[in-house]
Amino acid sequence: MTDVKHEIQNMVLTVNYRDTEFDLERLAGSLKGARYDPEVFPGIAYRMAEPQASFLIFASGKMNCVGARKLEDARKAIDKLTAKIRETGAEIESEPQIEVQNIVASFDFGRKFDLEKIARNHRNTEYEPEVFPGLVFRMEEPKAVILLFVSGKGVGAGFEKQESVMRAARKIVENTEHETL
């Protein structure tokens, strides 16, 4: 099997502090660099430099975390933000529930693809080169969408686990081994 290079580009996680509500005005005033304009958006936008992550914080006690490239970094960023929120006087009684919603990864398959041949041979694909130069390959297991390009590069989204990224890459290699240029 061709050695596929891959790199996680982004992770999207939801964070839920059960039975907690945030005073967004107070929180925004306490978090350096936080942006809060309730007339434009009903949450706080907050970016953390180390570990790198961005957050949308809502009064309901829920947040979205994006931008981390590793689950460990996302968890560190969430822990760091949780500590900062507690410092503002917000009462957080339990640890947050964290759930991965989406992982985006880039791939280099190390060979060129014949996208027209792949489109003809696989029903779970879409390829309209007049509209978009990539082939959309929809996978059932793991559930994800991979964009393949003639160059042998690709981008995948929809992964919920890091180990699913390489499983998907292996399936692409197995399903397209005779459809190269």
From TrEMBL:
GO terms for biological process: DNA-templated transcription initiation. InterPro entries: TBP (IPR000814), TBP_dom_sf (IPR012295). One of its GO terms (molecular function) is DNA-binding transcription factor activity. Pfam families: TBP. The keyword Transmembrane helix does not apply. Sequence repeats lie at residues 100-176. Coiled coil: none annotated. Keywords: DNA-binding, Repeat, Transcription, Transcription regulation. General factor that plays a role in the activation of archaeal genes transcribed by RNA polymerase. Binds specifically to the TATA box promoter element which lies close to the position of transcription initiation. Belongs to the TBP family. This is TATA-box-binding protein. It comes from candidate division MSBL1 archaeon SCGC-AAA259E22. The gene is tbp.
